[in-house]
Amino acid sequence: MVTMEGALSLVLGGVVMVSLMMGWKSIRLITSVLLLVIVSYNILHNFLAGPDDHLSILTGQHRLNSAPAIYIILLVAVALFEVKSQSGIFIGAAGISIGIITLIAHLTSGNSPFIFGFSRGASFFCLVFGLSLLILCHIARSENTRINTPAAAIGALGAIGTFTLLIVASWGIHLERHRLANALVYYQSTVLEQELNTSANLIERLAERWAILDLDIPESLKQTELTRYFQDTPSLKSLLVIGEGNKEILNEARTIEDKKWLTSQMKKLDVSQWINSISEQKRSDAWLFPDSTHPLDAIFLTIPGGAGGGVFIATFNIGDMQPPISNIINHDFET
User: Fold this and answer.
1) CA distances in angstroms from 234 to 180, 231, 245, 251, 319, listed in the order given
2) Which residue in 76, 87, 149, 249 has the most C-beta neighbors within 10 A?
3) Is the pTM above the cut of 0.85?
4) Does residue 296 contact residue 22 with C-beta atoms inside 8 Å?
């Protein structure tokens, strides 16, 4: 997969190589400077943003990794100054070596997207550019070697055409992955919304039944319903029922940790204010995510309209509501 900045770097790099071969000094200088600006920005942004931010402010896509960007700078340095020098041969040989090593590593490492900062595409083009630079250095150093202009032009057009087709194909793959990623997000959000509604309805029906009985529930019925609810609803972690005068009618949880978590949340001022606001607004139910350290744990509150009243508070783990996606979790979706 080649990103927008990677594609632009490849095209400019190809133009630099062609201008070196054809002796187009002005074109070589302009494209070299443009390429130097692009890769320098990527290196600087990578250094300042750190490992958690991968998006470019120019394109909104992934930036170039620093390792291939540094090699491109060395390539540009040779193009700007002297292709006949020993440094040109060294950098060309280094490109071939890096390309071969990282390509072999990609072939043997499975689904790893980057090896030493090089993707499969970057490894291949590093190999191609290194080989091209070696050939150009050999031509520049050999007095007897001459370039046939028509043949060189045809070769240059072929190389540019190949680059263009690879970029177009890579962009098509990029769009398809975006489409699949969007479909996955839509599917996950739809399933989560349905599970949240189902969980809310489950607690609401329980609250309505118990409210009709004025919260005076026979112990055998209470235990039977609680056992069934916890068995049939893996995401349900705890259930708290508060009657008149803040009297605790029920406080059951799947584990001791779940009970402690709900108890700690009920002691928070913002949670108490939230519960009071629901009663004052005469709303029948509401959701709250009270704990940033447990972002998937949610509190659901419902106030039944029966004679018994009361407040029913249940906690759910949103992660347990999501369907398994193990078959696509390693899919390489670009942003």
Assistant:
1) 29, 7, 31, 18, 10
2) 76
3) no
4) no
